[in-house]
Design brief:
With 154 residues, the protein is mostly helical. The chain folds into two domains: 52 residues; 94 residues, Arc Repressor Mutant, subunit A, CATH 1.10.10. The protein contains seven helices and three strands, in the order ααβαββαααα. A three-stranded antiparallel sheet has the order 1-3-2. The C terminus is likely disordered.
Length: 154
Amino acid sequence: MTHYRGWIGLGTLAFFVLWVVQLTAILKDKKEKKARSKEEQIRAQERRTEILKAVNTLSKNESFILLYSLHQNQQTVFAALSNRYAQAMCAKGLLKASPRGNIVHYPFTIPHFVWDYLKENEQVLYDSLPEFDDMKELYEHSDGLIKKMAFGDL
């Protein structure tokens, strides 16, 4: 009656070995995912740093778009889809085009990390436009730019 005990021991040993192999594979996967995640975070942070450096290289018109957004406290800017300033800022990562909109009145959003940086460092943008003392004067002077922002370079 005890002749089956050897088979039970062998079966138990085999299942234990398979369990250890599967557990090792799962732990290895978790470790690799964690390492990949950390690398992705580092790359994302480097990308954000590069994007924020672009704030110092803006043209006056691009700076105005950001200043206007800050002054209006609106993270979304509406411009023509063909607006070269908005498109240039999209290429720099300072704006993101919305997936919806029409050609003349297209929404561009300032990413959150850029918005936070701009709110903290608003004076940097004003310093790039030294001939203007306040937003009102800049706005009045840039009436043509507002029309270009709204209707593109028609």
